Structure formats: structure tokens, C-alpha cells
């Protein structure tokens, strides 16, 4: 039986199938997408369905996704963990600028605290390591924020296994967020390290940015048909079966798609089915 929950940091337990907020914003994660009321409905329904891990970022919008989370859910229900990210500045829908100087990280964290309407951010993830700033300085700034009570746990986004090992020598890390899905397993070494060290792994693009719902793999279609499920549900179920450290946070702005994603947690894959899905990517 697969575990439905993951406990990270100092006893924070979340349901592994969470909700990501990037799709509540427009193309390129810039500006609004659709009606604000529908975004608020999706967020509230996610929590009604038992989601306890909400993943967002300061540059989704920018700022918009965090504002939506607060408007929909504040005061946050007991057990709900809001994870956000800082370390990237946006100047357009295709313009991303890594910003990891300590003063930048402190300012971004303070802005997220205000938008989320909290005194402490449950999980604050460094969205990208800044190659122009020593890792010790970037993590040192986050450590200062943690000691000040403004961050509870520190996470990393888009890191190699070597970078994660280096970070763990510098401070306590609770999570990693790398690209990982049924067709993209480049971060297997990072996942293995997360399993060994008890870290959560939040895979982004869990549906391969839509590729896993578009058709093509006959084995995926056959397994989906056998379960009366969609391709996307099988892809999410595979993540939940693949490792107890994986905590996918698929996002959507559609209430119907939200229900479909969350129903993936009910799919139970047989060993033979898992073997066929594993073989979709040669080892």
C-alpha cells in the first residue's frame, strides 16, 4: 500500500498529492488567467478535497498567485502547509532573472510574508541557485530568516545531487523541487538522495507540461483504460507509487481538471503495470 502522507522537517505531515498555483496565472506565469473568482474556487475546493500542501511562488503573476492563496484560504486551516519560492525576479512573461544576493532574498521573503498574510512561511524554497553568489551566502540569508522566525523550513529548486549534498553540509534542507515525471527522470540521483535523507521531493511538470495528457504511448492508454482513468491520472499515480518521497503538486485553473487530478490518488497500480510504465524510459 502506498503512503498517502509525507512528514518533513519538524513533524509537518502533508498529503502527498498537493496543489500547485502556477496555472492560476496567465501564459508564461504572467498576469491573471480567467476570472479571479474561479481561481479562488479552485483553491478552496482543493483544500475541501483534503489537499494540505499548496505550492506557489512570488514570481507567479508576479505576486498574483500568493495573493490568490491568501484571499482564498486565509486564515489557513489547521494542517495546511503553504510553500512559496523566492530568488527569481520577473520583468516579462519570458524574462526570468536569478537574484540570489542576501539583500534580495530578504526583501523577497518579506514581500511574500505580506502577500500570504503570515508571520512565518512554512516552506521557503530557493527558486534557483544564483551562480554569481556563493551558495553559503544564499543559504546563510535563508538561515537568518529562519532564526528570525520568518521561515520554518528551507527548500531548494532545480539542483543537482552534488549541489544538494553541498547544501546539506551548510544547513538543514527539508525539500527539493526538480523536474520529474513519467517521461523525464533525469533527477533520479536527486530523488535517491532525498529518500536517503528524508527530504520531500516536489516534482514540477508532473504531467510533462501537458505531454502526458496528449496521447501517444500505447501502454499508458491501455493501463488508463483498464482503470477507467485518464492518462494524466495514471501519470500522477505512477509518481505516488514510484517513491514515498515524491509529493506532486499538479496545478490547474479548472475545477473539473482539479477533481480529475485529485482522483488520481485513488488509483492503485499493479506491479506489472508499474513495470510497464517504468520501461517507458530506458534505464
Mind explaining what this structure looks like?
- With 283 residues, this protein is an alpha/beta fold.
- The chain has a single domain, classed as NADP-dependent oxidoreductase domain (TIM Barrel, Alpha-Beta Barrel), CATH 3.20.20.100.
- 39% of the residues lie in helices and 16% in strands.
- It has a 7-stranded parallel β-sheet with strand order 3-4-5-8-9-10-11, with helices on one face. Strands 1-2 form a two-stranded antiparallel ribbon.
- Strand 9 (151-157), helix 5 (161-170) and strand 10 (175-177) form a beta-alpha-beta unit.
Comma- or semicolon-separated keywords:
TIM Barrel; 16% strand; single chain; 10 helices; 283 residues; alpha/beta; 39% helix; 11 strands
Q: Low-confidence stretches at least 5 residues in length (pLDDT < 50)?
A: none
Q: Give a short account of the largest sheet.
A: 7 strands, parallel
Approximately how much beta-strand content do the residues carry? 15-25%
CATH level 4 superfamily = NADP-dependent oxidoreductase domain
CATH architecture: Alpha-Beta Barrel
The level of helicity is 25-40%
Cα end-to-end separation: 25 Å
Q: Which structural class do you get from the secondary structure elements?
A: alpha/beta
Amino acid at each position: 500500500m502506498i503512503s498517502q502522507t509525507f512528514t518533513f522537517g519538524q513533524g509537518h505531515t502533508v498529503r502527498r498529492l498537493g496543489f500547485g498555483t502556477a496555472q492560476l496565472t496567465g501564459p508564461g506565469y504572467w498576469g491573471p488567467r480567467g476570472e479571479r473568482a474561479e481561481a479562488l474556487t479552485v483553491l478552496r475546493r482543493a483544500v475541501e478535497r483534503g489537499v494540505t500542501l499548496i505550492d506557489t511562488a512570488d514570481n507567479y503573476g508576479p505576486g498574483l498567485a500568493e495573493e490568490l492563496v491568501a484571499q482564498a484560504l486565509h486564515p489557513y486551516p489547521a494542517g495546511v502547509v503553504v510553500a512559496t519560492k523566492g530568488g527569481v525576479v520577473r520583468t516579462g512573461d519570458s524574462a526570468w532573472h536569478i537574484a540570489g544576493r542576501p539583500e534580495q532574498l530578504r526583501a523577497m521573503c518579506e514581500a511574500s510574508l505580506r502577500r500570504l498574510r503570515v508571520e512565518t512561511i512554512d516552506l521557503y524554497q530557493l527558486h534557483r541557485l544564483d551562480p554569481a553568489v556563493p551558495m553559503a551566502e544564499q543559504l546563510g540569508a535563508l538561515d537568518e530568516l529562519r532564526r528570525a522566525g520568518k521561515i520554518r523550513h528551507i527548500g531548494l529548486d532545480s539542483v543537482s545531487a552534488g549541489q544538494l549534498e553541498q547544501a546539506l553540509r551548510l544547513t538543514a534542507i527539508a525539500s527539493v523541487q526538480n523536474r520529474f515525471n513519467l517521461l523525464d527522470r533525469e533527477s533520479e540521483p536527486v530523488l535517491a538522495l532525498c529518500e536517503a535523507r528524508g527530504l520531500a521531493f516536489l516534482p514540477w511538470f508532473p504531467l510533462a507540461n501537458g505531454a502526458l495528457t496528449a496521447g501517444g504511448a500505447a501502454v499508458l492508454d491501455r493501463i488508463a483504460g483498464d482503470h477507467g482513468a485518464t492518462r494524466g491520472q495514471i501519470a500522477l499515480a505512477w509518481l505516488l507509487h514510484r517513491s514515498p518521497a515524491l509529493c506532486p503538486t499538479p496545478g490547474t485553473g479548472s475545477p473539473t481538471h482539479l477533481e480529475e487530478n485529485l482522483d488520481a490518488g485513488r488509483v492503485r497500480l499493479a506491479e506489472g503495470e508499474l513495470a510497464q510504465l517504468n520501461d517507458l524510459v530506458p534505464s
